[in-house]
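Troubleshooting log. The previous structure file for this entry was overwritten by mistake, so regenerating from the original sequence record. Sequence copied from the archived sheet and checked twice against the printout by T.R.
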Amino acid sequence: MGKSKKIIIGTVAGVTAAAVCVSGVLVWRHYSRGSDVDGVAYVMPIKDVNSAATTISDLQFSGVVEPQETKEVKLDTSKTVSSIAVQEGDHVNAGDPLFTYDVESMQLELQQGNVEIERMQNEIESNKQQISQLETEKKSASADDKLTYTTQIQSLQTDIAKSEYDIKTKKIELEKLQNTINNATVTAEIAGTVQSLKTTEQLQSDGTDVLMKIMSDGEFRVKCTISEQNVQSIYKDEAMVLHSRVDDSSWTGTISEISTEADNSQNNNMYYGGSDEMTTASKYPFYVTLDSSDGLMLGQHLLVSADTGADESIEKTGIWLYSDYVQTDENGKTYVWAADKKDRLEKREVEVGQTDDTMGDCEIKSGLSEDDMIAFPSDSYQEGMKTTTNPDEATPEEDGTDDTVDDSGNEDISYDENGNSVEEGVIGGADDEAGMAGDGADGDTADSVISGAGEDAGDGADEMPADEAGADTAEGGAADGT
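Regenerated output below.
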């Protein structure tokens, strides 16, 4: 009886010890599993991907409403203006007089030209009469004198030809002068409003010949200017949004023209937020064609910026991530891949708030802070992977093919035992579990329990009751003959 009691006590002690060992191995495996995961994931700070704090363009421009067409009225600086028929701000129709040149001096020049033509015509008639007389005298002259007559006749003929040429030239000149006199009054070519009217002194000071501009009636456009440092940040046909300076009114449009000629004559169209260096740099005009000009006034100033398409009714504060960062598991819980305190990758559960379908981002109400680091999702990620902030150190994405080449020169593709193509580099696949389970069948009691319970039951294996573990151990021991 005493011997049986000792055997029972020894058996119980052995089973208990085995259970403790197995439990310890399971616990160790549970907590050390993450450190054995291969691969390195690239993570980045929340502040770098927070769309609530990201501004697509910090540039904002001051624009002025102007007509689609502006006609420059230039002055012939060789002439004198006698009178100007309009004032700045006046509305004119096509054909209305704008200003008149002084024609008194031109009329005098025209009269003098006509007198000169008449004089040259008289000279021609006189020369012809002399030629006729010389030819008559030449007939009765001696042989020696005929040569002299011939020379005189040829000289007079040359004078006639020259006078005829001068008359033609003078007539063309006088025709132009007469045309100028007839058109001494310059009229408007288009209907619109007179702008930028200058005096003769201002023209000389500015070194320009543009006396005034006429802004056409009809649809408006908005003129803005941009610094040479930022001119590459805009492009033709880019969508723009324009806001009133006095109320909540807004308009939309697109950039229709970007001038390549610097315009430094105006200083009132400066973009906001620029440094002193930028404000002194060359500025280039660009024009926004409006989708609608309803409610706008000619000359009205607007605030102009790029139209990002964002829903302005949503006020974005806190943390907003693009929806691709947020994943959903089989239980419907939302999570992101984030670095834990030990710089290991984990599935961090987050609570999603508002969403902006236009911009494709969503609000993260809880689960993340500004100090966290997150990774863009990948099928190769597993919890416990190392993380890095250096993209060069991250494990590259696998393309699912082997690097070896067969005899035919084609790349070999990896397949599983069922003939299905598989993605190489997947960490912790079904084949690993099958292999570990096979290793556990070699007769090692502890490995058998770890393979059978640990791999098949997953994380729940460390919750196995001690008596069940002990029973399995004892059964395994009996099979081994112990």
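Residues 143-182 form the longest helix (40 residues). Archived copy saved in two places this time.
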